[in-house]
Amino acid sequence: MLAFFTQEGLLSPMMELHVCNQNTGDIVRKFAIGDVSELLIGRDSDCDIRIRSASISREHCIIEQDESGAMLLRDSDSTGGTYVEGIKIDAVRIEDGLIAVIGPAVLKFYDAEI
Q1: Tens of pLDDT along 78-88?
Q2: Cβ contacts of residue 10 below 8 Å, gap of 6+?
Q3: CA of 43: how far to CAs of 13, 58, 72, 84, in Å?
Q4: Contact (CB, 8 A) for 99 and 106
Q5: What does the pLDDT read at residue 68?
Q6: Residue 59 to residue 69: CA distance in whole angstroms
Q7: How far apart are CA 111 and CA 107, in angstroms?
Q8: Average pLDDT of the residues in 6-28
Q9: How many CB atoms neighbour CB 21 within 10 A?
Q10: Average pLDDT over residues 44-58
């Protein structure tokens, strides 16, 4: 896994997020993530990653770094929940190959290739 130092000196993994359509598997959008303290995912226009679907909460889940610099995907008390391997989660560490489902979207996390 590639990693870089943030301004605070914490090790920050560089990851890529693919947002996919759950029905077709098609990639809808790609995002480079890492070196951020927080990314909000939801249907609200103020979200960093916006997914327009009635089954996505306005502020559905958050990508954040913990005190060690590890990246986490945390559910924001969403109505529909955030699922990994069919299990509703509160939070999960983001690693290469992680797949999470929120409403009609599949979030796939990969080590970034530079």
Answers
A1: 999 999 999 99
A2: 65, 68, 69
A3: 26, 5, 20, 20
A4: yes
A5: 85
A6: 23
A7: 14
A8: 75
A9: 12
A10: 95
Q: What is the DSSP letter of 90?
A: S
Cβ atoms of 32 and 14 within 8 Å: the answer is yes
Tokens standing for residue 73: 């995907």
Distance in angstroms (rounded) separating the CA atoms of residues 12 and 15: 9
pTM: 0.84
DSSP string, 27-82: EEEEEEE-S-SEEEEESSTTSSEE---TTS-TT-EEEEE-TTS-EEEEE-S-SS--
User: Angle at the Cα of 80 (from 16 to 110), degrees rounded to 5?
Assistant: 10
* Cα→Cα distances 109→16, 24, 99, 112, Å: 6, 18, 7, 9
Q: Per the structure block, which two tokens stand in for 78?
A: 């969403």
- Counted residue by residue, the chain has a size of 114
The string of DSSP codes covering 101-114 is: EETTEEEEEEEPP-
Spatial CA neighbour of 104 closest among 22, 28, 32: 22
